[in-house]
Amino acid sequence: MDLTLKIWRQATASEKGKFVEYQVHNISADASFLEMLDVLNEELVRKGEDPVAFDHDCREGICGACSLYINGRPHGPDKGITTCQMHMRRFKDGETIVIEPWRAKPFPVIKDLMVDRTAFDEIIQAGGYVSINTGGVPDANAIPIPKRDADTAMDAAACIGCGACVAACKNASAMLFVAAKVSQLAVLPQGKIEARERVQNMVAKMDELGFGNCTNTYACEAECPKEISVSHIARMNREYLSAKLLSQKK
Amino acid sequence: MSKTVTYSSVAKKIIMSLAGLFLTSFLVVHLLINLLILFDKSLELFNQAAHFMATNPLIQTFQYVLFFGFILHIILGVVLQIQNWVARPVRYERKGSSEQSYFSKFMIHTGAIIFIFLIIHFANFFVKAKFGHIDSITYDSGTYENLGQLVVMLFSDGGYVIFYVIAILLLGFHLEHGFQSAFQSLGLNHSRYTPFIKGLGTVFSILVTLGFIAIPLVIYFSF
Questions:
Q1: Average pLDDT, whole number, for chain B?
Q2: Residue B94: per-residue pLDDT
């Protein structure tokens, strides 16, 4: 396959960036999207040019490192997968592919297609944990948890924190990410104890960092590589409302 | 420590949804009263209902709650939208369209036009009825201000009818997203009820739109 790539190039966080067009030739339809970029980068290095910086780690679709806003969609045109799991057969020979970094105020560009997603870590630090003493590993079934709740928590815990929800949202809202983190703990007995403080602290941090507001467009759910449901956002709204109404003033 | 009250994004959305649902309930009452025009060409039913609304002390008091609801919904909507624009200072070159609720993309736009419509609508009816002079009409049941006549007169102007119909269509789009979205913001999402609420929202917005559009069209073509 021969392709034209229109890639966002930005040398540093403070410098102005611009789109640069590149031609890549003889790309295998079975190559992954990142492998295609590797081919481009090897070519650039050979020519003595600066290779395109992009995030990647496991290349197995489970780590949440890779990103890329490809032709108007986070993680490209396929549903329910990360960029590293997408293959070039999804594109037509001769096609022009526009590749952009995630765009959101709390996700500043570090270089080219890499963005700083520390904001997500800060949200986790605000409450995405259990700080009570839960003791050692309990025996199976020592703490009864309904299957339905276990499944809900597991579905929410599938979030890999890649930031596609923020990238897809027209408001750059982080609600799906925060909701997944709130949900996975709120439905389990160990997490319930701190649920009220957690949801308030995490929402406050999310707002403070400058993420947008949720307008229930559900673009996040459509683009989430782990297909996290927006029902978790409703759960977070519910948790938030009850926390605000029922929490005792300290 | 300053004691300024700030509301979180989630809190603002909850207030937004409650105000929206409240305004929706007002729309239903408004529509039902308006439809009386179509069922009684002598306008007696409509004038009687309008008279009741204008004189009932409970409704008159509630009117201020309604104004408050409008102001809250509009101001919060604008604040939320500005924050959302600020949250993405650099736009995408190729804009995506993964939204699953189509009209969610245009809430500020439909909202802005509905707001302009509201001002004109207010000047045309509310201000005239409250502060201007409206002729009286006497039926067997009593003497009322002939507000119905004002409606019929305004809707005999084709240009006004077109403007009205467009504004109502946009209101329908606004409702189509807003109705189900309000439930989501309030945390009311359920595997069994959410599909029903979404369907109900669509049917509701279509019915309200058709109802409001039918009135000027019927008046223009057959009164």
A1: 93
A2: 94
| Better pLDDT: B97 or A125 | A125
Share of chain B above pLDDT 90, in %: 83
Which H or E run includes B4? none
Contact between chains at B93 and A168 (C-beta distance less than 8 A): no
Give me the DSSP letters along B31-100. Answer: HHHHHHHHH-TT-HHHHHHHHHHHH-HHHHHHHHHHHHHHHHHHHHHHHHHHHHHHT-SS--SS-----S
Determine the Cα–Cα distance for residues B200 and B151; give it in Å rounded to an integer. 30
Contact A173 B98 (CB under 8 A): no
* Region A3-110: CATH code: 3.10.20.30
Token digits for A5?
């790539």
Asked if A107 contacts A116 with a C-beta cutoff of 8 angstroms, the reply is yes
pLDDT, residue B1, reads 42
- Contacts with B, A 135-164, CB within 8 Å: none
Q: Span A162-185, mean pLDDT?
A: 98
Write the ipTM. Answer: 0.92
- Give domain limits for chain A: 3-110, 118-246
- CA distances in angstroms from B120 to B68, B73, B117, B154, listed in the order given: 19, 18, 5, 12
Query: What is the H or E stretch that residue B28 is in?
Result: helix B9-39
Compute the distance between CA of residue A219 and CA of residue A168 in angstroms, rounded to an integer: 6
pLDDT band, residue A140 (cuts 50/70/90): confident
Classify domain A118-246 by CATH architecture.
Answer: Orthogonal Bundle (1.10)
State whether residue B159 sits within 8 Å of chain A by CB.
no
Question: Do residues B131 and B191 lie in contact, with contact meaning Cβ atoms separated by under 8 Å?
Answer: no
In degrees, rounded to 5, the angle at the alpha carbon of residue B25 between the alpha carbons of residues B80 and B181 is 40
In whole numbers, what is the pLDDT of chain A averaged over residues? 96
Per-residue pLDDT of A14-48, as tens digits, reads 999 999 999 999 999 999 999 999 999 999 999 99
Residues 27-86 of chain A whose Cβ lies under 8 A from any Cβ of chain B: 69, 71-74
Assign B9 to helix, strand or coil: helix
Grade residue B5 by pLDDT with cuts at 50, 70 and 90: low
Residue written as tokens 């597991």? A154
Domain segments of chain B as ranges: 9-84+103-222
